[in-house]
Specification:
Helices cover 66% and strands 0% of the residues. It is mainly alpha-helical. The chain folds into 2 domains: 66 residues, no CATH class; 50 residues. The mean pLDDT is 81.
């Protein structure tokens, strides 16, 4: 069961104003690798409610130390597509048409092509 979490918009806005033009040293620095506005938004949400998806952030922090972010984020995007595709077929027994399989391959190709 999901429990509601109080969200303090004022604290999130204060955080955003404080760190919009500089970097909070408590979080990974993605400067020189394209930046990471997703991390900044997550930090603002964290300031507003005190909860962050630690698993994903830990994964990103570990990978960012092991490989270039220009390689890491496309791999994560393709990984998300593959997981969704696999779960839909294996667990939900989706019956896909050839056109849908082609769309799946085109999606992966687009992620790779856009990040070359």
């Amino acid at each position: 069961m999901l429990l509601p979490v109080p969200y303090d918009r004022r604290r999130a806005v204060e955080y955003a104003r404080r760190w919009a033009l500089s970097r909070n040293p408590l979080f990974v620095n993605f400067a020189g690798q394209g930046g990471d506005c997703t991390s900044f938004v997550s930090q603002c949400i964290l300031a507003g409610c005190g909860i962050m998806n630690g698993t994903v952030n830990l994964f990103v922090m570990i990978l960012s130390g092991m490989m270039s972010v220009s390689l890491m984020f496309p791999l994560m995007s393709v990984g998300g597509i593959l997981v969704t595709f696999t779960v839909s077929i294996l667990f939900y027994k989706e019956k896909l048409t050839r056109l849908q399989y082609l769309g799946f391959l085109a999606g992966i190709g687009a992620v790779i092509f856009l990040n070359i």
